[in-house]
Description:
By secondary structure, the chain is mainly alpha-helical. The protein has a domain at 20-115: Arc Repressor Mutant, subunit A (Orthogonal Bundle). Helix content is 39%, strand content 7%. It has a 3-stranded antiparallel β-sheet with strand order 1-3-2, covered by helices on one side. Helix 1 crosses helix 2 (38-53). The model has no long low-confidence stretch (mean pLDDT 93).
Amino acid sequence: MNQPWECPVPDPYVEFEGQSDLILLSQCILGEAEGEDYIGKLAVAWVVINRVNGDYWPSTIHKVVLQPKQFSCFNEESLRLDIMQEPTKYLIQSIWSDCFKAGVAAFYNYEEDPTLGANHYHTDKVSPSWSRGKNPTVKIGSHLFFKL
């Protein structure tokens, strides 16, 4: 009988800066796309990877996701911080596993980028000034993705 797919979890005593690239990427996916299906989680992962590989962004996952005001789940006032730090304490294991699986898939380029190269996104419930007048590359779940 096959064992369920397992993944590592963040060490709750280590700040975000001290987590591995894959754990931090998975924490970002959880914070930004917990309620999305797998493809929505994968899309958020690819936005991070597209920024890391882009010309105008820092070249590491840590510097991209922890850059102030870029991913709202890491903002000081975010209500997601405790959940991201200890996902298996607050959520069922399968949600965290899907986030980690999406992170691995983008990090190692195991699955194609469903965002068509996007490096920005927002939910369809808001209209930030940076997206006004711009056409999204794709809509996945409740997120609109943009290549800027």
